[in-house]
Amino acid sequence: MQKMFRTKYLDPDFRKNPKTDSYCIICQRDLKDGQSARLICYELDVYDAIHVDDWEEAADEIKARRAPHLESVVYGFIGGNCAKKLGLDFSKEISK
């Protein structure tokens, strides 16, 4: 039986094309230096954010249920406004 972990759909907006490599994965807006940003962990194919307390456990479980050589859990940045909409407990504060 698989242990369940907390997730929330990111609902990304892919209509914009980021101009830099540092952008919010939800709204696709570029993150500027000094702007508040947060780190999230999410399942790549389904864009489900994983709760901070479940990051390690979820990564192990997802890797076990999929092909271990595939990258299925990744980390990315989100901006402050998108983090609030998602729920701050799904991201970690970082200094950008």
Order of helices and strands: EEEHEHE
Q: What percentage of residues falls in helices of 4 or more residues?
A: 10-25%
Number of domains: 1
Number of helices: 2
| Integer average pLDDT | 87
Radius of gyration: 14 Å
Low-confidence stretches: none
Question: What summary fits the major beta sheet?
Answer: 5 strands, antiparallel
Indicate the overall shape: globular
Number of strands: 5
The computed structural class is alpha+beta
Question: How far is the N terminus from the C terminus?
Answer: 40 Å
Beta strand %: 15-25%
Overview in brief:
The protein has 96 residues and is an alpha+beta fold. It has two helices and five strands; from the N terminus they run βββαβαβ. 19% of the residues lie in helices and 24% in strands.
